[in-house]
Amino acid sequence: MDIVVNLASGFMNLFETGGKTFISWMKTIVPVVLLLLVLMNTIIAFLGEEKMDKIARGASKNIFTRYLILPFLSAFMLGNPMSFTMARFLPEYYKPSYYAAQAQFCHTSNGVFPHINPGELFVWMGIAQGVQKLGLNSMDLAIRYLLVGLVMNFIGGWVTDFTTAYVCRTTGIKLSKTVD
């Protein structure tokens, strides 16, 4: 009987701990995420969707803007998963590479911009708690993660260009390099 009681107590303790964590987030991270979302929507409303579309089309013409600037802007302005929709302005040939860069960016920017990927915020919060328990500043880690992520996400997008070229060559599929 003691085993059953201990299992039930442990099970309930799990939810009590989760509830305490949730309430602490309601006082700290949730207001920040909410205000970042308000800022993002305000900027999009101020600029207009047409200008956002024009920015994306221009960014698609250069490898650096395609895999560094466009993923950053779309993740910051639209968040995950909506940031993937910016690929609609890219030629078919570059869409796989953009997806590779964008998918990684939604993770590596979470420490600095938690509104980008709130669904996985718990991962960053767990890491940040460990860093804070060591007496270190978690923002230092977040900035480093963001900067390393920008470089690695760019490389991931660029390498996917080569992969796409290989697949097209070996399968005989031709993907357009111009926007229709």
Automatic annotation (TrEMBL):
**Annotated GO CC locations:** membrane
Keyword entries, A-Z: Membrane, Plasmid, Transferase, Transmembrane, Transmembrane helix
Query: What Pfam families does this protein's entry cite?
Result: EII-GUT
InterPro entries noted in UniProt: PTS_IID_sorb
> Which domain of life does the UniProt lineage start with?
Bacteria
Q: Quick one: a GO biological-process term for this protein?
A: phosphoenolpyruvate-dependent sugar phosphotransferase system
Per the UniProt record, which residue ranges are transmembrane? Answer: 22-47, 68-90, 142-168
In short, the EC number is: 2.7.1.69
Q: What class of enzyme is it?
A: transferase
GO molecular function terms here? Answer: transferase activity
Q: What is this protein called?
A: PTS system, glucitol/sorbitol-specific IIC2 component
Organism field: Ligilactobacillus salivarius (strain UCC118)
